[in-house]
Amino acid sequence: MKKRDAILQAxxxxxxxxGFKDTSMAELSKxxxxxxxxxxxxxxxxxxxxxxxxxxxxxxxxxxxERYEAEKNVNTGLDMVEESISFYLYMASIKEDxxxxxxxxxxxxxxxxxxxxxxxxxxxxxxxxDIFENAIRMGQQDGSIGPWHTRKSAMILFAMVDSMxxxxxxxxxxxxxxYNDMIxxxxxxxxxxxxxxxKRIPDSDGVVTSDRDV
Amino acid sequence: MKKRDAILQAxxxxxxxxGFKDTSMAELSKxxxxxxxxxxxxxxxxxxxxxxxxxxxxxxxxxxxERYEAEKNVNTGLDMVEESISFYLYMASIKEDxxxxxxxxxxxxxxxxxxxxxxxxxxxxxxxxDIFENAIRMGQQDGSIGPWHTRKSAMILFAMVDSMxxxxxxxxxxxxxxYNDMIxxxxxxxxxxxxxxxKRIPDSDGVVTSDRDV
DNA sequence: TAAAAAACCGACTGAGTACTCAGTCTAATT
DNA sequence: AATTAGACTGAGTACTCAGTCGGTTTTTTA
Lengths: 214, 214
Prior knowledge:
The structure is a homodimer of 214-residue chains. By secondary structure, chain A is mainly α.
């Protein structure tokens, strides 16, 4: 593996576990076998390592979220909300390092004085909230989700799910045991209570099944 | 103001805005007018300052939550859930410094090797989740809230509300505009859908109203 | 194969860190 | 007025940190 890649990998690991400030260049040097000088040959400074990680996070994760949007196959928007929650938690678990970096102070501190960083964070969060918003909008069109404010409902859903990432990161609660209840709570929060509306739209689409298969 | 108190106040301020690690003793010294030696006269080390803040947080906030529990006056448990959300967000705004300290990495890192710190965090979070749990339990007894898992529902509610603290802290979203929608979402998530149950229990208590007045 | 370019090295620097300590100041007590 | 004790001081200490620099090795190009 190229030294540059090794440095990025180690930095992602250490920044997420120990935080940006608490990770020293000496530590990265030792972990990668690269001399400290080599790190500064590849990256202008420590901050630039962090920004590179954030850029990679956007470039890695955004396509995965977009691919998910294109590939998912569900009956109703309400089912898709459930899928979206699952997908978010799944991504947060396989990319744990990257997600927990977003729960640190440093990126937001950096964003205050660094437009690129702010832009990166904005585009990452936009994609996160969008998968919920799209699911909710779909549900509102097919009648499975009530007429609540779409974007705000998406944010509330995101708030719920994102806390789970925090709970896991800090070992506050066993989030696995909350999973089913969270899905159920999300459904109750969003589902349409008016059956008239529920029937009208699916008929016009020719979709007939009311049960979904996973 | 006594130097010791000034140091604690400044430390709370700086730890919450800049983080524990990024706050230097020189900074605290400058902000309080106390010499660096004075800080170490009052506190064994930097960590001890943090633990003192955490102890005060528990001692300040817990009684306020308990007073709230004793004083609140609502019709149904579902209304009380709404009150609890309001109260939590209110406390988080008037004690912003203390709440944002709980969203940092340091306390959880310290908790791993420091039983007192872990104990402090646990008792703080217990009180937080308890106000929601008590409201939900009350609602389940008066029939306004459905038969969902009490503790888990409380945690999901807490997850939702606690994210708002994070959103505000990092300037991610304008949480004021989410407030009403969050209350409404919380109600839909919890309310009882079975009118039979809604009537049965209040009857046995001698309470007759099935509609609530806000 | 020679020259040029890119990658890499690690000792070094100076600014900053938490913390110490010998001693001063203040205010109450004797 | 003398004693005492707690509050306070700030220069000093040992150490860590991100970042530099002169030089060496490896790879690519000609």
